[in-house]
Amino acid sequence: MILHRRKLLTAGAGLAGTALLGGCDRFAGTETGRRTLKVGEDANLFVQRLLMSPATLAREYPAAMISPWFKPNGTIDPPDRDFRALAAKKFSEFKLTIDGLVQKPLSLSLADLRALPGRTQVTRHDCVEGWSCIGQWSGVPLAELLTRAGLKPQARYAVFHCADTLEYAGGGLEGGDGASLWRPEHPGSVRDGYIQLAAAEDWGGAPTATDAPKDDWGQGAPEPEAPEDKRTPIRYYESIDLFDAFNPQTILAYDLNGKPLPVSNGAPLRLRVERQLGYKQAKYVMRVELVESLSGFGQGGGGYWEDRGYEWYAGI
Ligand SMILES: Nc1nc2c(c(=O)[nH]1)N[C@H]1C(S)=C(S)[C@@H](COP(=O)(O)O)O[C@H]1N2
Ligand SMILES: [Mo]
Questions:
Q1: How would you write the pLDDT of the chain (316 residues) with one tens digit per residue?
Q2: Which of 18, 60, 81, 103 has the smallest C-beta neighbourhood within 10 Å, fewest atoms?
Q3: Kind of pairing, strands 96-100 and 285-291?
Q4: Which one of 281, 288, 316 would you pick to mutate in the ligand 1 pocket, going by the greatest count of ligand atoms within 8 A of its CB?
Q5: 284 lies in a domain?
């Protein structure tokens, strides 16, 4: 999708700050600059952005290189009641919310999303655990949605709210039904993971009996309702800045390899932000909230894994 410059400028005044690549010294000297360039990871972001034009794309692959199976990771079957109710009805009642610092909040069904101009891309997903998969993703460019919603000038980040609970505030990995919540594990450092990854082959093996995905959503009968859980769930969330939000490859995907996303890979809708690592690719996205600051969410790190020590800008 081609965004007209004027539209972009009216859509997001926040973009102007990141787009002024020529004025880096001045940028570093401003309040925002000082706040942004506080540690190494932000310097990494700054240098990468200096070297990139706004529309730098991740590599796209030929269809023949698509992995026979896209390994699911992290949450593969959200235990949450609300999600289970949606899945039981094949997501026919799912609505994506776009709100926060927008002129016109949106609420869109899957049919609404599919009716919008879409984009299909074959890209490689790199997880910090050291595996990669190539998949074909189809979805709606986030730029399309943000342009329709119209950003307010203070908007700087898009926060993705996901349906899946990973743990409960104050500790506790027990699901409402007493089952243990799946707890993902990652290497101690994203960069360690990335170094392993550089040497790793693309993941392309066949599923084994023990890790076969529970895909085909809507297949199972509705489950008995779990009792309501009074504890505060900590759900997966992620965030990106407007620079990445308007990249043409940044899409909310509803199809994987030409078929509706399996639940294990994030049905009904998941983020693809192709120049970043796997944990940025939020699955089970229910709501996109436009905000000025990330400090009000979780521990303020900008994502579930970021709150546990991973870098916010996971560029590859
Ligand atoms: N909602 C949600 N999104 C998530 C995760 C998760 O646990 N929950 N895991 C992340 C990680 S670490 C990876 S590698 C990818 C895995 O996506 P996949 O299951 O399609 O392979 O999803 C990312 N997005
Ligand atoms: Mo990951």
A1: 444 433 433 343 344 334 333 333 333 344 443 344 444 445 455 555 555 555 689 999 999 999 999 999 999 999 999 999 999 999 999 999 999 999 999 999 999 999 999 999 999 999 999 999 999 999 999 999 999 999 998 999 999 999 999 999 977 665 544 445 544 444 333 333 333 333 333 333 333 334 444 445 555 445 555 556 678 999 999 999 998 999 999 999 999 999 999 999 999 999 999 999 999 999 999 999 999 999 999 999 999 999 999 999 999 8
A2: 103
A3: parallel
A4: 281
A5: yes
Q: Could you identify the atom of ligand 1 that is nearest to the CA of residue 75?
A: 7
Query: What CATH number does residue 119 fall under?
Result: 3.90.420.10
Any residues with Cβ below 6 Å from ligand 1, and which?
70-75, 127, 162, 164, 184, 236, 265-266, 278-279, 281-284
Residue 43: phi and psi, rounded to 5, are -65, -40
The total number of structural domains that make up the chain:
1
In a domain, 8, yes or no: no
CA of 154 to the centre of ligand 1 (A): 29
Q: Which residues surround ligand 2, an ion (CB under 5 A)?
A: 127, 278-279
Does residue 314 form part of some domain? no
What is the residue type of 253? Answer: A
Task: Provide the domain limits for residue 209.
Answer: 58-308
Amino acid at 63: A
pTM (2 d.p.): 0.75
Residue 64 inside a domain? The answer is yes
